[in-house]
Design goal:
Helices cover about 50% and strands about 0% of the residues. It is mainly α and about 140 residues long.
Amino acid sequence: MPKTPSITHQVTTRLTSMLRTGEDKHSEKQEGITSDFIYSWDTYKTYRTKCIAFMKWAKANYDCRTLAGARPHVNAYIKHLIDSGYAATSQKTISNSIAKMYRCSSTDFIPTQPRRRADITRSRRGKANVRFSESRQSGVCGFL
């Protein structure tokens, strides 16, 4: 009996088969066939990273070794992301990545949290402006 390919290889093979860099997305969008393909290297890399993370989670928690075996656990993974405090945009990116891999719609999964502009975090850590010095700027504008 042949050995099952690794989960990383399965994800990479599936997404690579959908990759169409250099193709004309506009004309295919007019025909309504863009949902089956990936047109950007950056999108491919993002989707691959997110799908591999899902597969590793499914393998660790449910001992899944194939894409088909992990499919029933997508909703549990999205629920895990929501409970872990992932941002709504991250939840949506991961949901869309997995949906692309399984060639379905992200509406087939449980809904993610709504995205709101007010919830966007621009910096992960509070960074001080190292170029600003109060002692040097105290007399410049007369405000300090």
